[in-house]
Structure formats: structure tokens, C-alpha cells
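Researcher: Next entry: Glycosyltransferase family 39 protein (Victivallis vadensis).
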Amino acid sequence: MILTPLKNFIISTCPEKLDKLSRFRHGWAWLLLTALTAGGAFRLWRHWAEPMISRDGVLYLRQAELWLAGGFQALQGSEAAWIPRLLPWSISRGMLCGLSAYSSGILVNVLAGTLLIAAVFLLTGEFFRDKRLGALAALFCAFVPEFVQLSVEIQRESLYLLFMTLALWLAVCGFRRRNRFYWGGAGTTAFLAALARYEALELFLFIPLFLLGRLWLNAEERRETGWALLLFLLGGAVGGILLSALLGIPLEYYTEALTGRLRGLWG
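Model: Predicted structure:
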């Protein structure tokens, strides 16, 4: 409202200035493209300049080799059967394409780290309702030393951060856009994040608590909030079943892990 007189004045006096303003407003696309291109190239250069592999990285590569040789069951008797399955499975897919275990592991992490830049853009742009801020956040994420380091080593964190950020973005979309189906996507993506690191299971605690609190405090939107809660949990359950089938993980793996945890708590 306040800017309308100024905009009309610019149109009447200097149309070329309005054209420059419009180009600036839509310059976020070029900024995002720069962040993705430069961020991906910088990660590849960083690994080329100083290749390294940690003790955990060696373990993940061993898990991927076992998965490729004997499937999911081969992991159950290994020394690290507790490791979430997404990273070993992803590395084994690259090995099926002819890559070595090490090259596949680096490719998975560099790709996840680069896609994380786009995920940060989506989350920040949706949260602040400003794509320019999202593009600036993406450019910042492209060169944060901690993010870069996680992307050039064989670690689980890049996949975890990628799907965690996407789950939060979908949850914000569901809240802001009043579209309940975003919540189903948030549940499925949160399950993917949990397949990278178990810490993502906290989303299945805190997001339902947030929705339950909103359900109690905002009586006018109880129907919409109830649907959001139901679809988030259904998205996690149904998406989890489908993803487990895709990865070749039997459902007994989860039930045995859950009962084992409960025995440990009540033991």
C-alpha cells in the first residue's frame, strides 16, 4: 500500500527504472543458479584438492559392499548393523552403475550437499515469503565451511540435512499455503531423513506436538489442523512402508528394533 504511489510515480516519470527494479526482483533465479553451480564446483574442487576418508567412511563403504553382495540380510550380521540404511544403499546404487565404492560415496555426498543448497533456498524463501532472501541464504550455504566439509567426505550428515530441510520446507508450505497434502509429503520426507540419521525421528515428536497445541489453541481451524496431523503421520507410515520396499528393508527390522528398545527401557 505504501509503495503504490512510489511505483506509480516511477512508471509515469522513468519507465526504464521500473524495468531495472523488475529485473532486480527476479534476479533471485540467477543468484540461485550461481549458488548451485559455484557450490557444486567448489565441493568437487575441495575434494580434489584434499581427498580424505574417515574411519566412519571406511565403515560405510564396507556396508555398501555388503549390501551389494548379499542384500539387506548381509548387513544384519555385520559389525555395524545399527547404521541407518540410506547411505549404504545409495552408495551401492552407484556401484551398480560401475563406480568404485569410494567414487560412489563421494558422488552421493557431493550431490546431496549441492541439493542442500536448493533445499535451503526453498525453506528460507517459503518461511520469509521472499525468494530473494532464499537465494541469498542458498549462496551463503554454498560456501559455509562446515557444509562444504560434510559434502566432500563419506558421511551421513549431507543426506540427513537434505531431507530434514525438505521435510521442514513441506511442513512450512502446509502451514502457510493451507494445503493439507504438503503434510503427507513432510511425513514421508521425514522418514527419509530418519533413514540417514535416527535424530530425524524427533520430527515425529515435535511436529505432532506443535499441531496438537495448535489444535487446542485455535478452535476455528481444528478441522484443518486435524487433517494436517493425520496426513503427516500417514505420510510417515505409508511412505516408510513404500521406501522400505524400495530399499529392500523388511518391516520386521523396525518391529524388532522397536521391541528391543522397549525391552531396554523397561528391562
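Model: Note for the record: Confidence is low (pLDDT under 50) at residues 17-24.
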